[in-house]
């Protein structure tokens, strides 16, 4: 079981591939994703034991230096994070809807993990910068109180970094949004 994940967001694709190689050579980690994002950025996400992930991310930071836009290590990742990243969360009905928008992919994943741990909500999707001009969007659902608490916690976790764009809670989203969101 994956206990930790680490992610580096890089300013350009070529350097991103170089850094991914350094990360994979540094620790016994599993490559979750290595891909280019808008606008010409690159993310590398690895998973494994906490020590191995820390080693890989530290090596990536050292190899990337000024090319690193954002990064994180999450030692005890919430299990709902992986389906939300893959866009394959099975949600039968939409309750209240929470949205957190960020300026970076890394901050979105960190905010989503914090939100999911803060209250009993379901992560619907973590959309990372594809077609979003480098931004990322988290959607989550549940009862109004839980969604409000989760959005607040996730937003607060990244607010100081300057990567928070906006946050919204819809207590009762219009029925036509259900199909668009789910």
UniProtKB/TrEMBL annotation:
Subcellular location: Bacterial microcompartment
UniProt keyword terms in alphabetical order: Bacterial microcompartment
GO cellular component: bacterial microcompartment
Pfam families xref list: BMC
InterPro entries: BMC_dom, BMC_shell, CcmK-like_sf, CcmK/CsoS1_BMC, Micro_shell_prot_PduT
Domain BMC: 4-86, 96-182
Family, per entry: Belongs to the bacterial microcompartments protein family.
Protein name: Carboxysome shell and ethanolamine utilization microcompartment protein CcmL/EutN
Organism lineage: Bacteria, Bacillati, Bacillota, Negativicutes, Selenomonadales
């Amino acid at each position: 079981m994956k206990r930790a994940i680490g992610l580096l967001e890089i300013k350009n694709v070529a350097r991103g591939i170089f850094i991914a190689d350094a990360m994979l050579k540094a620790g016994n980690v599993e490559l979750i994703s290595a891909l280019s994002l808008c606008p010409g950025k690159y993310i590398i996400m690895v998973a494994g034991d906490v020590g191995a992930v820390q080693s890989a991310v530290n090596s990536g930071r050292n190899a990337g230096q000024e090319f690193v836009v954002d990064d994180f290590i999450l030692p005890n990742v919430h299990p709902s994070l992986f389906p939300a990243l893959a866009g394959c969360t099975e949600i039968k009905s939409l309750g209240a809807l929470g949205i957190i928008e960020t300026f970076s992919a890394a901050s979105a994943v960190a905010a989503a993990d914090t939100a999911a741990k803060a209250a009993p909500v379901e992560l619907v999707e973590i959309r990372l910068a594809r077609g979003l001009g480098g931004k990322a969007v988290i959607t989550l659902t549940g009862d109004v109180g839980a969604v409000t608490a989760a959005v607040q916690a996730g937003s607060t976790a990244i607010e100081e970094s300057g990567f928070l764009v906006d946050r919204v809670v819809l207590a009762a989203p219009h029925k036509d949004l259900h199909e668009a969101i789910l």
